[in-house]
Amino acid sequence: MTAEIDRRPPVHSGVAAVVVASLCTAVVGLFSLYATPFAALAIVTATVTTFAGWRRAAALTGVLLFLAAMVAGFLSAPDAVVVVIAGGAVVAWDLLDNAIGLGEQVGREADTSRAELAHAAGSVGVGVVVTVVSYGLYRVSGGGQPLSALVLLLLGVVALTSLLRT
User: Fold this and answer.
1) What spatial distance separates the first Cα and last Cα of the chain, rounded to whole Å?
2) In 99-127, which positions are buried (b, 16+ CB within 10 angstroms) versus exposed (e)?
3) How far apart are CA 67 and CA 42, in angstroms?
């Protein structure tokens, strides 16, 4: 008799993604009232992904955080805030996607905490570097261009990356 393996994602990465989405919501809430509902919905979708393992909810988390960044950018939030929210969107989506993959491969009950911690550290590190470099390039070569162009460019990169992964 074999026991059924629970294929839902492990909790650690999901909780980290919920924390990232919550931090993004708090930051965007300080600067844009209209962008806050998008970020707040991202917290809900990240939580649903953590407990149900729906890949579409993980993607929706990233999209909602990107929408929050775009709305904040259109409503004149500081440039650094918009770039940080966009970077947070990628990190939250990556953490959730990794958690779903781990759940599908080894199940929720397997001890994946070291792998999740290593992935989270790498994801946050890459997210910070890409955010800082993107903001630096924007400041150096922006020449008065709107920040929303940078956010749309980042959205295009994420969409392309997502398509290449499938």
Assistant:
1) 35
2) bbebbeeebbeeebeebbeebbeebbeeb
3) 10
Whole-angstrom Cα distance, residue 39 to residue 44?
A: 9
Ramachandran angles phi, psi of 42, nearest 5°: -65, -35
Distance CA 91, CA 111 (A): 22
CB atoms within 10 A of CB 35: 27
| pLDDT per residue as tens digits for the range 26-61 | 999 999 999 999 999 999 999 999 999 898 999 999
Enter the tokens of residue 119. Answer: 């992935």
Question: DSSP letter at 109?
Answer: S
Could you tell me the pTM of the whole model?
Answer: 0.83
Contact 24, 39 (CB under 8 A): yes
Give the pLDDT score at 114.
92
Residue found under tokens 């009232």: 33
- How far is 79 from 22, CA to CA, in rounded Å? 20
